[in-house]
Amino acid sequence: MLESAAPLLLVGAGKMGGAMLERWLELGLPAAGVTIVDPYLDEGAKQAWSGRGVRVEAAEAAPPAVIVLAVKPQSMETVLPAIAGRAGPATIVISIAAGVGLGRIAAAFPAGQPVVRVMPNTPAQVGKGMSVACANDRLDAGGRALVDALLGAVGEAAWIDDEGHIDAVTAVSGSGPAYVFLLAECLAEAGRQAGLPAGLADRLARQTVVGGGALLAESALPASKLRENVTSPNGTTAAALAVLMAADGLQSLLTKAVAAARARSLELG
Ligand SMILES: NC(=O)C1=CN([C@@H]2O[C@H](COP(=O)(O)OP(=O)(O)OC[C@H]3O[C@@H](n4cnc5c(N)ncnc54)[C@H](OP(=O)(O)O)[C@@H]3O)[C@@H](O)[C@H]2O)C=CC1
Ligand SMILES: O=C(O)[C@@H]1CCC=N1
């Protein structure tokens, strides 16, 4: 099914767009059917993509099956009018830009353009992403299957009908990997402050996050039960959790963090 996404035009081959393209190429999207438009790519990146058979900056004769808009929200104002002319009537336009609404994207293209707003995350790079998609009413069943194939290739995908949820989605799963990486950083620093050598503290923190994530992925148990399984009565974990689960603990911090991210997503629109 990924072959049907070619020709694919990727606008912006940065961290997120580049990660998704890497995975799509690995899983069978034909490189010869991919064009990257990104005037800011450095020579090394251009050569790396060209070396894999992807065209960089080529002018397309035929309209692509899919356009993926993966530039910063702040760049959309210039990118949308510049790219709109490259779409045909059946081209599916996918935007992954935080905050930028379906209506604003669709307005840059002729009436009737199928447009999908997607919020992916960077674990897409290793096929463990979480993407949430929301489409306008011009996306037909075939188009939805094609988008499902693209998103399924990079991890799990969910569809929502209410675009109003996407700012909260962005705050939870779009930005969420950063919170997990920060947890690894903070756990390592806490280990250093407890007297561990720096390298050992890093290794323990990293593998604990990796192992915890893998157990969560493989187990049918909810996260709360997996947490309880670590917690011996009156033991060491209970002592730590009394701090983390206090009124001003992790829940309160994450609730504030997600609210801040959601508010920023709304502003970016
Ligand atoms: N990173 C993430 O975890 C996630 C990001 N997103 C969304 O993905 C989008 C891209 O984010 P990210 O990959 O992190 O950002 P990057 O800056 O890494 O990637 C954007 C790329 O687009 C390039 N670019 C800028 N202007 C243009 C233009 N006019 N035409 C074509 N390319 C252009 C940028 O160049 P330059 O750097 O020089 O500006 C850069 O290479 C954002 O809208 C973000 O909201 C969504 C989910 C997760
Ligand atoms: O930080 C951002 O704005 C983007 C959107 C979600 C993750 N990164």
UniProtKB/TrEMBL annotation:
<dbReference type="InterPro" id="IPR028939">
    <property type="entry name" value="P5C_Rdtase_cat_N"/>
</dbReference>
<keyword id="KW-0560">Oxidoreductase</keyword>
<keyword id="KW-0641">Proline biosynthesis</keyword>
<dbReference type="InterPro" id="IPR000304">
    <property type="entry name" value="Pyrroline-COOH_reductase"/>
</dbReference>
<dbReference type="Pfam" id="PF14748">
    <property type="entry name" value="P5CR_dimer"/>
</dbReference>
<keyword id="KW-0028">Amino-acid biosynthesis</keyword>
<dbReference type="InterPro" id="IPR029036">
    <property type="entry name" value="P5CR_dimer"/>
</dbReference>
<dbReference type="InterPro" id="IPR008927">
    <property type="entry name" value="6-PGluconate_DH-like_C_sf"/>
</dbReference>
<comment type="pathway">
    <text>Amino-acid biosynthesis; L-proline biosynthesis; L-proline from L-glutamate 5-semialdehyde: step 1/1.</text>
</comment>
<feature type="domain" description="Pyrroline-5-carboxylate reductase catalytic N-terminal">
    <location>
        <begin position="10"/>
        <end position="99"/>
    </location>
</feature>
<dbReference type="GO" id="GO:0055129">
    <property type="term" value="P:L-proline biosynthetic process"/>
</dbReference>
<comment type="similarity">
    <text>Belongs to the pyrroline-5-carboxylate reductase family.</text>
</comment>
<dbReference type="InterPro" id="IPR036291">
    <property type="entry name" value="NAD(P)-bd_dom_sf"/>
</dbReference>
<feature type="domain" description="Pyrroline-5-carboxylate reductase dimerisation">
    <location>
        <begin position="163"/>
        <end position="268"/>
    </location>
</feature>
<keyword id="KW-0521">NADP</keyword>
<comment type="function">
    <text>Catalyzes the reduction of 1-pyrroline-5-carboxylate (PCA) to L-proline.</text>
</comment>
<protein>
    <recommendedName>
        <fullName>Pyrroline-5-carboxylate reductase</fullName>
        <ecNumber>1.5.1.2</ecNumber>
    </recommendedName>
</protein>
<dbReference type="GO" id="GO:0004735">
    <property type="term" value="F:pyrroline-5-carboxylate reductase activity"/>
</dbReference>
<dbReference type="Pfam" id="PF03807">
    <property type="entry name" value="F420_oxidored"/>
</dbReference>
<keyword id="KW-0963">Cytoplasm</keyword>
<dbReference type="GO" id="GO:0005737">
    <property type="term" value="C:cytoplasm"/>
</dbReference>
<feature type="binding site">
    <location>
        <begin position="70"/>
        <end position="73"/>
    </location>
    <ligand>
        <name>NADP(+)</name>
    </ligand>
</feature>
